[in-house]
Amino acid sequence: MDRNQIHYELFVRRQPGSGWVLDLANESRTRVVETAEELLASGAVAAVRVTKEVLDPETREFRSITILNKGAPERKKSKDLPERRDPLCVSPQDLYTIHARDRIGRLLEGWLSRNRSTPFELLHRPDLVEKLEASGVELQHAVQKVAVPEAQARGVGVHEIIRTFQSLIDRTIQRLMKDHRRGAFPDLNKEKYAAAVERLWNEPERGYLLGAGVAGYLTGSAGWSEKIDRLLDLADQAPTEPAARAVALAAIEQPLAEILGGKAGLNDLLGADMDLGDTLAAITRLAGAKSVEALIRIEPGVARVMPDLPQSAMRLAGWLENDFETVRAALAGRVLRELVGPRRLKGADPEAEIAYLRALAMALTASNGRILQLDDIFAAFSTRSAMLVASDFVEALLGRDQTAREDVEALIHLVENVTGAGNKRQAARWLSANISALKFEKEMRYGSETPPARLAALAALQKAIARVGLPDEDRLVLQGKLGELGGQIEADARLVTLLARAQAPIVHRLNLLLRLAMGEAAPLGPAADRARAEVMKLVRTPELRETITRSPEAAEQVRGLLKSAGMAA
């Protein structure tokens, strides 16, 4: 791959004197920065550092830029103190962090998918834990998969790491079962969520207890969509007092983010029969509902590609406007991963691919950072644009049944919709090759259309090239080629001479020639220059002076024509 890749890494120091440890890597700047702020505010770490990692396409190495560094200053390490090699997770509470849940989700992905559950539910539901233990080797294999790289990284034996993790798992299960047997978890089928929050407010582990109540409330759900509806039912019951509301919604947000962060849950919510383009459009509409809805009303191109959301998704979109930042980050991460991934948005339909990319870029930008930051959007679409200027995509775009002019129009549209200077330049090369091709020249010079129609078509192409954002050195070359071709067509037909000598009122002839000279009826270049020269001759003829003298209306019309052409004050 010759495309830049960007992601963000969060490093933490758990103690003022400890070393930096990688805690999170993600494509979403917002998610990583917010996680860093949350860890620091909660006191779980002594310091945080967020870096932006950019892959250099030539050296294939990442360049690191620090964008956040907060917390206790780093202390110099004493040579007498050995380096700590404790595992990242040492207590049951450590398994409930975002990073740990993400690791659990990857290690037990198959089992969780078969049981339609999330890591959050597994950590809070005794019935799921018992089912996992009864499954046989699933848990053992997960421990082995994480133990081998952990042992290599810390320089200790694999069996020692396995024993450490197995002890941690046993303690976590015992704690969960003990709390379940003593009735510590709220039953939200019998107790209102707001009441449970108030009752557990002074408990030191209220987040864990509320999480168990939320997970228990999801038991028996028929599918992911029903789980989302149940979570939103609880959100509707959340208390109104700000501090209590924040705690209540945080317990709901964790499983909601995990459901929507996975393909199965998102597909169940949005519709499993959608292709990638429709899926990303639906996610964008879900995550940025208010701004996207406003854009749909004024941009037909966006309205055409945005699918209607199911009722459950519309309900969730309303919540995402003001709450559940982590859920929006999970959705943003999915959009970002797919945009920089290799899959086509619309399969074998290149024109639809361009239309969807354009609409997605507009919708994500209009969301003003609520889904993705502008630099992330630009980087993602630059990466995706590199696919659009590859030979296989261009060949599919041009097809076999199009005229040479239609090929050039398609390439101009492609140039307009790719991002990044290198991609623009590559698209301009494709466009230049087609404009310079003998097929295009023959079609324009000797086609079935009349010479005025062919000249007008070239003028339209020349103006379109001016609007696609090419650098001047590329734009002027392409416009010059069209101008030269227009000059050949005009010379073949002797159109300027025929118009100048036509048996028609001089004001009418002047109008037609001015349209050629201005680049409206012919491309700027030799044809327009010859038309301008004939206009200057007509302006000085006695016939025009007599016409102006006899008719003041004609005088005003001529003055207006010359002024619009920039040939009169």
Keywords:
mainly alpha, 65% helix, 4 strands, 569 residues, 30 helices, single chain
Q: What do these coordinates show?
A:
- Among the domains are: 6-71; 401-493, no CATH class; 494-564, no CATH class.
- It starts with 5 loop residues before the first strand and ends in a 5-residue tail after the last helix.
- It is elongated and about 110 Å long.
- It has 30 helices and 4 strands.
- Helix 8 crosses helix 11 (242-261) and helix 22 (421-435) packs parallel to helix 25 (472-493).
- The chain has a 4-stranded antiparallel beta sheet, with helices on one face.
- With 569 residues, the protein is mostly helical.
- Helices cover 65% and strands 6% of the residues.
- It has helices spanning 29-42, 98-107, 109-114, 119-124, 126-134, 138-154, 158-181, 193-199, 206-217, 224-236, 242-261, 263-270, 276-287, 289-298, 300-305, 311-320, 325-339, 350-366, 374-388, 391-398, 404-417, 421-435, 438-446, 451-466, 472-493, 495-500, 506-517, 526-539, 542-550, 552-564, and strands spanning 6-13, 21-26, 47-55, 62-71.
